[in-house]
């Protein structure tokens, strides 16, 4: 086990003794102990740094919540392990608070004490330390000249992630996603280039390249008897173009693709204060027969208002709710509510981020029908997707 500097904040003497004794057996490095938040804060102030705080929350005087808030101001504490018996809803909010304070949350130790669980959480700290997760070359963001060269050389290409029936994984449609086939760094996701493109007004160039290639593939598949719905992501900055819908209509005609088979996905947060031209383009796309999907539903703050005001035909529920199903009961309620909402509004619903069989089974019991996620397929290049369609 790595050398660690650990602080145990626990006001119950026996629990504190058990935890400290176990730590000294499974790791090297100093183990500090405190019976109150003020005592723990004093230890932190007198240390150069503290790798982990194993923290109870309920105690007299300065409690664990106040300690964490004050500890975040020192910048000396890196990771937190909770060791407190609290309601699951309160626990979830506390974890969110810990992360927003800038700490790395390792998990719950729980009570009674579990030595195996403690060892697992300590190892998790080592795996999540900054600088170990990715190589320096992978973390380097490309420069503008690299992006321009990539656009000129056709290095940006569409990757295709299937949308499937949740019950039997049968193929229903596909989302077109951007990837950069970089000559030195390999295939890069949007996190490596999207912000740079947005800043330098290059998103249109990327979109039209992906749209052109996506429509070509859609026609090719239709000619072979596989007519799928294709979804493309639109950025809010593109919606202010006065030629957007005209250009889309021209390409649909050129590739002989019916507009009803095309959906444009837009995040609801991007439309909170959209100008009139953006709203006009949304109306024109729907009049043309294209679909509009509210992407990442539930991740913003005005979802219901946007659903009432804007002509969406589809809801894509943010994958965060699926990931939280196992430990946050309210997520199940949100998913069930969204199923009922979509049906009452006459919209289709797609559940994002399905990764396990357990999630699939639970979603089926909640009434979900269509999904995307790594359980079914990851985004793939064109030749792989063609093979996927023929299976």
UniProtKB/TrEMBL annotation:
Keywords: Phosphoprotein
GO biological process assignments: phosphorelay signal transduction system
Residue ranges of domain EAL in the record: 140-391
InterPro entries associated with the record: CheY-like_superfamily, Cyclic-di-GMP_PDE-like, EAL_dom, EAL_sf, Sig_transdc_resp-reg_receiver
Organism encoding this protein: Pseudomonas saponiphila
Source taxon at top rank: Bacteria
Pfam families xrefs: EAL (PF00563), Response_reg (PF00072)
GO molecular function: cyclic-guanylate-specific phosphodiesterase activity
Modified residues (4-aspartylphosphate): 56
The keyword Kinase is assigned to this record: no
Limits of the Response regulatory domain: 5-126
The protein, known as: EAL domain, c-di-GMP-specific phosphodiesterase class I (Or its enzymatically inactive variant)
Keyword Transmembrane helix: no
